[in-house]
């Protein structure tokens, strides 16, 4: 059995997988591979699957499956799975880092210091304690964010049509109930037809004036032009995102010129510890698939 590693995983993973078969990172061998490992970089389109003539199992290291044409996979008899548990802590910690950096104006303070400016009086901070966090989506990652936000003394609300009860957040019926109450809104939903463009001019109008928006989910869940406009008008006090409508973002992406942003290059799941956890889940999947023990 040939196992093809298409994207960046923990460097120790290839050796761990050799018990299951031959392991390669040579993309030209896709037509020979029975198992392929991808993250978000490889786009598994219908054309990609057409080249993967022997493929039986596709493992997506991470949560989102929007880079995989699941209909094409099904049509070719390929089982596509992900590792949904592994990334929760890494992405939740980045979310909290965003929520701390924006109101504390850490980027502005750091840049000013490097420029020889000591803006002690000019930079005013606000605290998380006593504020309300509104989570859109409270799955594995959203729950980890809720636990950490509560430790900071925040009130946590959540809207998720697929979750009926929560031990770490107050569930509300919809965005109309969530958004007007939230000082911070954090997105933790996959990209689907239902969530595409979820944050737009209309939903932004429901936000509390001066709220902060955090996106460690998917870039296309927001209309970037509308978010940029909300930042320019002050409707939003800040927007922090790890994800974009196209990656890397095009030079004309409106967020690049918008004020009060904190932008990172899709590093949410890239912690050393998380890559190890993803590798552990990959091994478990292959143990079940092959009947072998690593």
Describe the fold and architecture.
The strands form 2 sheets. A 7-stranded parallel sheet has the order 8-7-6-9-10-11-12. It has a 5-stranded parallel sheet with strand order 2-1-3-4-5. Helix 4 packs across helix 6 (140-151). It is built from 10 helices and 12 strands. Helices cover 31% and strands 17% of the residues.
Write a short abstract of this structure:
By secondary structure, the chain is α/β, with parallel strands linked by helices.
Major sheet: arrangement of strands = 8-7-6-9-10-11-12
Cα radius of gyration in angstroms: 21 Å
pLDDT averaged over residues: 96
Using DSSP, what is the number of strands?
12
Please identify the structural class as seen in this structure: alpha/beta
Question: What would the principal axes of the Cα set say about the shape?
Answer: elongated
What is the succession of H and E elements? EHEEHEHEHHEHEEHEHEHEEH
User: CA-to-CA gap between the ends?
Assistant: 15 Å
Helix content: 25-40%
State the helix count. 10
Q: Low-confidence spans: pLDDT under 50, at least 5 residues?
A: none
Main sheet attributes: strand count, strand direction, barrel closure = 7 strands, parallel
Strand content: 15-25%
């Amino acid at each position: 059995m040939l196992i093809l590693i298409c994207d960046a995983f923990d460097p120790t993973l290839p050796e761990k997988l050799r018990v299951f078969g031959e392991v390669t990172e040579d993309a030209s061998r896709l037509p020979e591979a029975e198992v392929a490992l991808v993250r978000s970089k490889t786009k598994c389109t219908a054309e990609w699957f057409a080249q993967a003539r022997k493929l039986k199992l596709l493992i997506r290291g991470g949560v989102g499956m929007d880079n995989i044409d699941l209909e094409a996979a099904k049509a070719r008899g390929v089982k596509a799975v992900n590792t949904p548990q592994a990334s929760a802590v890494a992405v939740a910690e980045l979310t909290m880092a965003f929520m701390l950096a924006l109101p504390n104006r850490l980027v502005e303070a750091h840049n000013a210091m490097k420029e020889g400016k000591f803006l002690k009086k000019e930079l005013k901070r606000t605290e998380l304690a006593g504020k309300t966090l509104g989570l859109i989506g409270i799955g594995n990652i959203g729950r980890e964010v809720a636990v950490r936000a509560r430790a900071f003394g925040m009130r946590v609300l959540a809207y998720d049509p697929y979750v009926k009860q929560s031990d770490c957040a107050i569930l509300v019926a919809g965005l109309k109930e969530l958004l007007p109450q939230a000082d911070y809104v954090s997105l933790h939903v996959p990209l689907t037809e239902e969530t595409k463009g979820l944050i737009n001019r209309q939903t932004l109008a429901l936000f509390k004036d001066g709220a902060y928006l955090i996106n460690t989910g998917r870039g296309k869940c927001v209309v970037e032009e509308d978010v940029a406009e909300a930042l320019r008008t002050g409707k939003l006090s800040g927007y922090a995102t790890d994800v974009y409508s196209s990656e890397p973002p095009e030079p004309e992406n409106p967020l690049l010129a918008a004020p009060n942003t904190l932008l990172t290059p899709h590093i949410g799941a890239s912690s050393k510890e998380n890559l190890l956890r993803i590798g552990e889940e990959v091994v478990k999947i292959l143990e079940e698939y092959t009947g072998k023990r690593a």
